[in-house]
Amino acid sequence: MRKAIALGGQSGSAELRDWARRELQGYAPEDELPEYRKIVAPLTLDGMTIHGIIKGQQISSMNLPDFAQDRITDEIELRMGIGQIEKLAPVQGADHVKLQPQGAADLAAFMNQTGAVKGHIERIYWSVAPVALAGVVDHVRTMLTVLVAEIRATAPTGAATPPAEVATNAIHFAVTGTRNKINFTAPQGTVVTSHPQAGEDDSPKPWLRIAGAVLVGLVTIAAGVFALMQVQGWKFK
Question: Which keywords belong to this entry (predicted)?
Answer without folding.
Answer: Membrane, Transmembrane, Transmembrane helix
